[in-house]
Amino acid sequence: MTAQDSKPFLYVVVCAAGVAVDVGRLIAAAQERNWEVGVFATPVAMGGFFDTASVEAQTGRPIRSAWRTPGDPRPFPPPDAVIVAPATFNTINKWASGTADTLALGTLCEAYGLGVPTVVLPCVGDALAAHPAYRASLARLREMGVRFGEPYSGATQEDGGRPEFGWTKALDLL
């Protein structure tokens, strides 16, 4: 067994939100805490929401966004934990309903069945967060044992700045 194999393995699921541009901060913090990291991304997130080449260089692994074909080896070991950050309205609602129409969602649905600890950092605007389906989805995921970081709407604060997205707080919740 190599030193890399002895580290716990973290799946990071990235959704299409503007703050995804900084997902490298979560990866760096996880690596500093001795995690090996593999990244899954929703298909929309792969369309320019973060620097995929940089993330692949940082993790030393390909980003997973599409299903592998039968017979292809699994590029990641099974997860010891999962962090979904940023988690969008769409992903949260689909996941809570058991929809697995993308690799990212299928991975999240499977992680529950495997009992893998999962943390979510929602990134949902206030108008969408007010929707009753979203509130019901949060309740269902909490019932499933999913842990949540502080919601992030990206709204400008009174001082004109934006609040910090809780990248490292997600690791604390594990």
UniProtKB/TrEMBL annotation:
<feature type="domain" description="Flavoprotein">
    <location>
        <begin position="11"/>
        <end position="126"/>
    </location>
</feature>
<dbReference type="InterPro" id="IPR003382">
    <property type="entry name" value="Flavoprotein"/>
</dbReference>
<dbReference type="InterPro" id="IPR036551">
    <property type="entry name" value="Flavin_trans-like"/>
</dbReference>
<protein>
    <submittedName>
        <fullName>Flavoprotein</fullName>
    </submittedName>
</protein>
<dbReference type="Pfam" id="PF02441">
    <property type="entry name" value="Flavoprotein"/>
</dbReference>
